[in-house]
Amino acid sequence: MLPLRAALGAACVVCAALASADSLAQGYPLRPVRLVVPYPPGGATDFTAREIAQALSASMGQQFVVDNRSGAAGTMGHHIVAKAAPDGYTLVVGTFGGLVSGPALMGAQIPYDPLKDFAPIGLVVHSPWALVVNPNLPAKNVRELIDIAKAAPGHYQYASTGTGTPNHLGMVLLLVNANINMLHVPYRSSGQITIDLISGQVQSAFSGVPQIMPHVKTGRLRAIGVGHPQRLNALPEVQAIAEVVPGFNNSGYYGLLAPPQTPRVLIERLNTELKKAFNAPDMVKRLESNGLVTATGTPQQFGELIGKDLALWRKVIKTAGVTPD
Fold this sequence. Notes:
The protein is built from eleven helices and ten strands. It is of the alpha/beta class and 325 residues long. It has two domains: 32-127 and 252-320, Bordetella uptake gene, domain 1 (D-Maltodextrin-Binding Protein, domain 2, 3-Layer(aba) Sandwich), CATH 3.40.190.150; 128-243, 3-Layer(aba) Sandwich (D-Maltodextrin-Binding Protein, domain 2), CATH 3.40.190. Helix 2 packs across helix 9, helix 4 packs across helix 11 and helix 6 (166-178) crosses helix 11. The radius of gyration is 22 Å and the shape is elongated. The protein starts with a helix and ends in a 5-residue tail after the last helix. 42% of the residues are buried.
């Protein structure tokens, strides 16, 4: 009799827990949700975050409020959410820079562990980098850039927003794979890079597609390659660098993450809503027109992607001898 009572009691506990979890998911969110963006307004991260906020606000019946918290090359915003309460009301639009390239370069200097201090919700988009040059540079494609760089080692320059940033490490990867040498010129902002690229003060850079699209269309800049494994619908005439350098991949991404220990039922609810919104045809079209590529999946798949890329870029950084400034 006692074993039966114990079994019934255990079953009741399980049923109560399931009912509680279901109630938590159905009631969430009961108030506005803070969506931390680790970069200033105006860039591709902010654009993506506002698409996320608008979609989730519409589908979940509460406002998802964008909170731009830039600083420390994108790591400050990630740190805020890593230490936030795990209640589903503070989330971060995680970036390749804050989750992969920054931690891969800085190691223990980063105040959070990208694999332990977040609960991945889901990947949202890939944000490929485009390799752009000043139109006066005698290189109309990636092969020609490699050839002129080999003919004059260290003569040609490339810009980035600082050592260890994704656009810097993307060029490092190209230099290593193509066995060429170019001079690194770090800047404080992508806006200043664009200005100096157009004027010819610096000759090349990896830049976000949304930022350079207007200048490519007017001929003030020339896009000669994209870091995504395939060509982009936004720039169909521009070759993927992998067509010239097999296996090359310099494509950042944005995804949604919560603090660790956030209830699994909330993670799954948010993931379901994300996939629904970002697989909608109008959303796909809007993102692709801005040079982004939708890429939804499970929380587990997003976490595995971060881990795989961390291992890859730690190896690239070690091979190239890149050290923090």
